[in-house]
Design a protein that fits this description.
Length: 142
Amino acid sequence: MVSTQLETLPYRHVLTLPTMGSAVRITRETTEQVLEEWGISRRHPSVDPALLILSELVTNSVRHAAALSPNVTVIFAGGPDTFAFAVHDRHPYQPRLYGTAIGTGSTGLATVVELTFQLGGTTVVRGDADGQGKSIWVTLPL
């Protein structure tokens, strides 16, 4: 999804946490709360996969970026038929998403790509303008 499409989504929420293990649990809890506030049922078939995807992405930031990125930021955007989210850290490494689907990357990132694909969504890595961080954006249809 291009950024102009994201800008048209009416709902927004941003969560910034220290890059430590508790960020995974807090992200899951916040995601459930945000979706409930936006009127998206906990039983919607995209919600459990979205929670798993977010957990994997935040876990990756905690494991691999904490030394260079004291915080991890989760950005949520939503609308009647779309749930988009990004996990941002300030580590410069940008993983190759689609190499992971054929087994050359980490299993967590392969899970993210596979689940997103199965749900008809998209996954994109966007580097920060200064080259010192990145966001992994996932867009899922609702």
